[in-house]
Design brief:
With 158 residues, the protein is mostly helical. It contains 4 helices and 4 strands, in the order E-E-E-H-E-H-H-H.
Length: 158
């Protein structure tokens, strides 16, 4: 493990080692200490911090999905929002944290995201299918009613 010298300079902490392989950690609690951010260098610590952040985000996404999953009266709009949020999370993960995570954690996260995406896409598909079937049934009933009306009141054309 490398050692780093930290020097206070105008309320900023500077790493004198100039190692560019660090994770910029920002948190609300750091603001209470008058720190804007902290650079983490230990790979295990970085991995633990990122996994905690990712698990918190997963929890938020899953709570959102749980609140809308059983209520399909609004159609697919809330599910599409959840799918968009999941894809946004996936892109953020690829762009920001992927370089710092261990391979086994990346594979686990990818599996979780794919599972959520597939479940949402399947639910959206079935809601759309049911809506199309209902529309087809309504159209059939309207056409059938119109035929009966035409036959009963107007008689058959000769």
């Amino acid at each position: 493990m490398n050692s780093y010298i930290v020097v206070e300079n105008n309320n900023q902490f500077i790493n004198n080692n100039y190692d560019n392989n660090y994770y910029n950690y920002e948190n609300k609690e750091l603001k209470l200490l008058n720190l804007n951010n902290v650079h983490l260098f230990d790979e295990d610590l970085i991995n633990n911090v990122i996994m905690k952040k990712i698990n918190k985000r997963f929890k938020i996404i899953l709570e959102f999905i749980a609140n809308i999953y059983d209520d399909d009266s609004e159609g697919t709009t809330p599910l599409m929002q959840a799918l968009t949020e999941t894809e946004k999370f996936k892109r953020e993960l690829i762009n920001k944290e992927r370089a710092f995570l261990k391979k086994e954690h990346l594979e686990l996260i990818d599996k979780k995201i794919k599972l959520i995406e597939n479940e949402l896409k399947e639910k959206i598909y079935f809601i759309n299918l049911r809506q199309r079937q209902q529309e087809a049934m309504v159209n059939y009933m309207q056409n059938d009613y119109q035929e009966e009306y035409d036959n009963e009141y107007h008689g058959k054309a000769r």
